[in-house]
Structures are given as C-alpha cells and as structure tokens.
Amino acid sequence: xxxxxxxxxxxxxxxxxxxxxxxxxxxxxxxxxxxxxxxxxxxxxxxxxxxxxxxxxxxxxxxxxxxxxxxxxxxxxxxxxxxxxxxxxxxxxxxxxxxxxxxxxxxxxxxxxxxxxxxxxxxxxxxxxxxxxxxxxxxxxxxxxxxxxxxxxxxxxxxxxxxxxxxxxxxxxxxxxxxxxxxxxxxxxxxxxxxxxxxxxxxxxxxxxxxxxxxxxxxxxxxxxxxxxxxxxxxxxxxxxxxxxxxxxxxxxxxxxxxxxxxxxxxxxxxxxxxxxxxxxxxxxxxxxxxxxxxxxxxxxxxxxxxxxxxxxxxxxxxxxxxxxxxxxxxxxxxxxxxxxxxxxxxxxxxxxxxxxxxxxxxxxxxxxxxxxxxxxxxxxxxxxxxxxxxxxxxxxxxxxxxxxxxxxxxxxxxxxxxxxxxxxxxxxxxxxxxxxxxxxxxxxxxxxxxxxxxxxxxxxxxxxxxxxxxxxxxxxxxxxxxxxxxxxxxxxxxxxxxxxxxxxxxxxxxxxxxxxxxxxxxxxxxxxxxxxxxxxxxxxxxxxxxxxxxxxxxxxxxxxxxxxxxxxxxxxxx
Amino acid sequence: xxxxxxxxxxxxxxxxxxxxxxxxxxxxxxxxxxxxxxxxxxxxxxxxxxxxxxxxxxxxxxxxxxxxxxxxxxxxxxxxxxxxxxxxxxxxxxxxxxxxxxxxxxxxxxxxxxxxxxxxxxxxxxxxxxxxxxxxxxxxxxxxxxxxxxxxxxxxxxxxxxxxxxxxxxxxxxxxxxxxxxxxxxxxxxxxxxxxxxxxxxxxxxxxxxxxxxxxxxxxxxxxxxxxxxxxxxxxxxxxxxxxxxxxxxxxxx
Lengths: 575, 254
Fold this sequence. Notes:
The complex is a heterodimer of chains A (about 575) and B (about 250).
Chain A: H1 4-17, H2 31-58, H3 64-70, H4 72-92, H5 101-107, H6 114-136, H7 140-143, H8 152-182, H9 185-209, H10 216-220, H11 225-228, H12 232-244, H13 251-286, H14 298-310, H15 314-329, H16 331-357, H17 369-390, H18 400-404, H19 410-433, H20 436-439, H21 442-463, H22 483-508, H23 512-538
Helix pairs in contact in A: 1-6, 2-6, 4-6, 4-8, 4-9, 4-12, 8-9, 8-12, 8-13, 9-16, 12-13, 15-16, 15-19, 16-17, 17-19, 17-21, 17-22, 19-21, 21-23, 22-23
Chain B: E1 2-11, E2 14-24, E3 29-33, H1 40-48, E4 55-60, E5 63-64, H2 69-74, E6 76-79, H3 91-101, H4 106-119, H5 135-147, E7 153-157, H6 165-180, E8 184-188, H7 192-198, E9 201-206, E10 209-215, H8 216-223, H9 228-236, H10 241-253
Parallel strand pairs in B: 3-8, 3-9, 6-7, 7-8
Antiparallel strand pairs in B: 1-2, 1-4, 4-5, 9-10
Helix pairs in contact in B: 3-4, 3-5
C-alpha cells in the first residue's frame, strides 16, 4: 500500500517548486536555484530598507511616544511593500494555483486521492507565501520595532505582515476562484490572463500611488476618511497599532476594517478555491483548453478590416498578426510585457504623482517635467518591453514554416518587424497621449505629440539595430547577454536621457523657435538611427536569424576548463 | 525534375546521409523509404533548405537550389514529419499567415483557404486553436499549407500520419492527381502498402545510403520478391523481429 503521507510530501515539494510558473523559466532554468535567488533578493531588499530606516530611530532624540508617531509612515511603507510582494507572488503563481490539464492527466491515472493533491497544493501555496513574507521582512522584522514592549512589538509586526500578505493573496485567490465558478472552463482560461494582468497593475497602482497620509492630522482629517477606506495598507497599519497596544482612536476603525476584510477575503478564497478546485479537476478533461472564437464578433471584424486596409503588404500583415496574436495568447510573452509595462507605469507614476496630488501647486493644465516625462517613459517601456518579448521564442520547432516560406528578401522581414513594433507598442501610447489635448493648451499638446512620435520612431530604430529575427521564431539562449551590466547601463542612461530631454523640452516649449530647434535635433537623430538600421538590414550578406548559436561541426566537451571552442559565424548576436 | 547528386550530411563528423543520388521526375511519384534513423527526413530537410548538405548538390529544373533559394521556395510545398505548428493560432489564422508569408493576394487567398478548410473537413473548427486539434486535423492543416500556392515540387514526409481512412484515401488520390498534372512528388513513408499503391518508383535508404533506386516493378523482378515489404525487409531490416518480440515479453513479465 502506498503511504499517503509520502505521496503528500512528494506532491507538496513538487507544487512548491512549481509555484513559479515553469513556463516563465528558461529551458535550463533551475527552479530551486531561482527560488533561492528570489529569497536572497527579498532578503537583500529587507536589509537595505533596515539599514536606511533603523538608524534614524536609534539616533533620534524624540520621546518614545513622538518616535512611535514618527514611525507611522515607515510602518505603512513596510506593510505596503509586504502586500506588494505577496501580490506579485500571487500574480506569478497565478496559473499554478488551480490544477491544469497536465496535473489532471499525469496524476489522474495514479493511485493518489484528490484530497491528498488538494492539501498538498494548499500547503505549498501557504509555504510559498510564507517564505516570501519572511524573506522580505527578514531584517526589518528583527530590527525595526526597537521600541515598546520587548515581545509585543515584534509579535505585532509579524502578525500584521502575515495578515497583510494573506489578505492580498486571498483576495486574488478569491477572484480566481469566483471567476472559475462563474465562467465556463474555456472562458475562464481566456479571462484568467486578463485578470492576472489587472491584478499586476492594481498592485503597482496601489503601491506607487498611495498618498502619504500616515500622520495624526491626515489620518484624522474627515476629508481623508473616504480615501482611507480604500487603502488596505492603512487598514493594516491600524491593525499593527492596535496589536502593539497604541490606543490612538484613529486606528480603531482601520484595524476593524483590516480584520473584517481579511476574514471576507480568506472566507471567499477558501470557498471559491475549494469549489473551483474540484470543479476544475472534473472540467479539465471534459472541455478543451481554448474556446472557438467567433470571427463574426463586431470588434474582431473591425480590427480585421482595419488591419487589411492599413497594412497592405501580405508579409507585413503576416508578421503583425502573428505578433499580435502571440502577445495576446502566450502567457510568458504577456507577462514579460506586463513586467515592462508595470515598471514603466511605476516610473511614470513617480513622475505623474506630483501633478496628481498637486503638492507643488501645479494644476493639471500646467505643463510640467512630470507630465512630459510620464508619456515618454511609457513609450520607452512599451517599445523596450515588446522588443524584449520578440526574443523569447514560442513553439520554436514550428519556425520551419518561416524558413520554408522565405520568399522575400531579409530586408523585407526586418521592415515588417519594425512596422509591427511601431504598430503594437508605439501607436497605443501615441493614442493614449492624445489625452494631453484634454489637459494642456492645444499648441503645447500638439508639440509634445510631435516629440512623442519622433521619439517612438527613434526608439524603434535603436532597439531594432542588428536585430535579425522574426518575433518569437529564433531560439533563445538565457544568459548570453550580460544583463547585470546592460540593465545598469540602460537604467542609468534612461533616467539621464528622459530627465535631460524633458527639461530641454520644457524649456523649448516656451518659444516656437526654441521648439523648432529642439524638434529639428530630435528629427536629425531619428533620421541617423533610421539610416543606420536600414543600412544594416539591407546589407547583402544579412540573413534572417533562427538560431541564437549556430550549429558547430566540432563540439569539445570542455573538460579542460578553458574556453569552449565555437565557430559561430556571428560574433554580434542581434539582441 | 528534382535531382540529388552525391549528397552527404554529417552531424559532428558523423554522416547521417551518405552520397545519396537520385532523381524525381515530373508526373512521377517517388517513394522515399528507410527504417527509423536512415536519413529520410534529413534528406527532405536538405531539399527544403532547412539544413545544408555537407557535400553534394541538389538541383531543381537543372538549377542548384542554393543559387536562387527564394525562387525555389516559391515552387516548393512541404509537409514535415512532425506536425510542428503554431498551436496558439487557429487553423484559419495559420493558413492565412502562411499565405501572407508567401505573398499571396488577399482575396484569392481567402477563397482558397475557405475551399481547403471545407474540402478537408476543417471548416467547422476553423476558429479553434490548433492546440485543440487532433493529430489528423493538424496533418490536414500542414497539407493545406503546403498546397496553398500551387507548388511544382511536393515533399511529403509521412503525409498519412494520423489521417483517418477517408482522408487517407482522398490524399492518396490527390497525390496521384497532382503527379498526373506534372508536379514532382517525393514522399517518405513507413507505410509500405501505401507506397506500393501510390508510387511509380522508390528509393530505399539504409544507414544513410541508397540501397535501391528503381521502379517497383523492376525491383520485384530483379529481386524475385512479390511485395515491396519483402524487398524492404531484405534490403533494410537487420533485426530478428521474432527474437526482439520474445525479449520484450520476457521483460514485461519479469
């Protein structure tokens, strides 16, 4: 007889390591190592935060009561960070929390009880959440509450963090469970991806846009009560204060709200998840994964008509539609783009926060550095994100069709890829930027739009220089680029260029002649980037690239520890 | 005419195909046979340009295919052995993409795709993602994609794989009809019975080398064997099938 406990242990371990969506990992990715790196990263974050925050309290000359009040802002920051990490965990693990077809088909025929699988899944989720909460509070949890009762402060801290993390995780789990109950399996699969993206952007929005209200006056202000009712990090700040025994009356309703909403989220998650789990186990086998798409729906018809009219060349249309459909349907690609979008949104929020809360008395109608930069930041991240997604392959072995049907010159393919990047990344941001006309004077909005369009074209040509691939159709070699160096250089350059460019633009917008000079320089740079990319694309020896590393005739085993011989013909991979 | 002249392909120095020479003529169906790993698919991939020969030359209409690969690919239709498709696309979307990649104009393409989908019984599932298709349905998509542009050269690698009886009969008849209209057809299969019924001549490959290249009638006469299966067993099968079967059963019962 097979031991149920042993089965549970094996499944628990397997599910725990699969909490990170395996499809997001590279083929040779080591899950254990990756999880260790995640934990170390969160621990490192906690250490940095502790080093930055704690000394202020240790060296402060304030009375313990005043110090406790002064700490509210930092406490709210730590709570909201924990909630953001728990939320991101829920988003990353989104497609692994409910059983999928693979689970069902692999485990179904084996002599394992559904109950054992269910409990293993639940405990793995809680363990995964717990590891992240502990990791992100590893140092702050030990060092931050340096005042108050010896045991009560740390206990209140850890209980609050666990409750805040659990609230976010349960909230998303409940949303998923309810969606799985209300929708057919096929529709659920389709909607689930959008829910995941919505959750991701909700986390970022809350994290970066939550106003600074953690002062006695702002917390007590009647006009802020409606806002506080919608800001979970403040509920849990209230809970922390209550557990700590600080009897400030402003925290009583917040703490009550935290407990009530945590109970609701936990209850909804437990019920929704359990029902969805058992229902899904049955439905997976009975229903196919993907629903038939009704081509006659008006929205789809309008898009199809627009594409057929706007994109006349069949090759351009093929690449554009293939890219759009892959981005819409591939979880990994969508998630990568969402990560870039999220980062872009975070930076844009950071710029836009100033006019949003009017801290410096800048009404919306005034053109500010923040307003100018926000659009450019989003444009940059959209283009960079889609360009990054292009390198991640999908169904690599199916790329033979591009090779066999290669009846155009390589330059034609590269041109189609450029149009696709502009159409799918730049055009949506340009359309959103039309919103500038609603808040700024027409001339200024028009001038900024011209800058946005030129910058978009420039960015597309820069990011596609030496790019010789059809999106998603070339193999991907993880670690081929030195990302640590590249990311640092790119991030530094990006912040400098956006800041410098926006300052320059703001100055140029004051006078028509100034703006004309500014735009001329920008156009000249864009023309140079276009010509450089076009010349590379049209060079006669160029080929569309399908392999990141070309096959070699001789492969050494590399036992000597020296460099491995490779006769790859392209020393500069186009990435 | 498709002609291979002393074609060799080596992987890391190990030859997969050695010195292969044969010709496939218009109006003729050439069967390409061999056991697993004999180099059939490697040969077909070299003809499509997916991999390059280490030595030798491949000619189509007396011109090396490498001289103008774009012109060659415009005349080539290929059904690969494995149904590797972009399974997140629907059958209709995949065929549209292939037609667009080949530069076919929009309206005739839409008309052709609709016709293929109807005739191959895929029309009802045209909006379903290929990931939900059965193996036979995928095979039909591959077949439609290979024929959309009316190619002069058809390379079919296990084209009957996964097809039901009706579809297999249609395909068999279709291959004959296309050959009779002057197309060059080279098809590889393990189904010796089908090859015998369809092909006018066969090339048999064993361990990367051509061991027979003649019409089936001529091979029967030369080797004094009644069927293609007997000819194939004599030329390309080394295992004692009875002994292997016995050993597998013993292993199961251990």
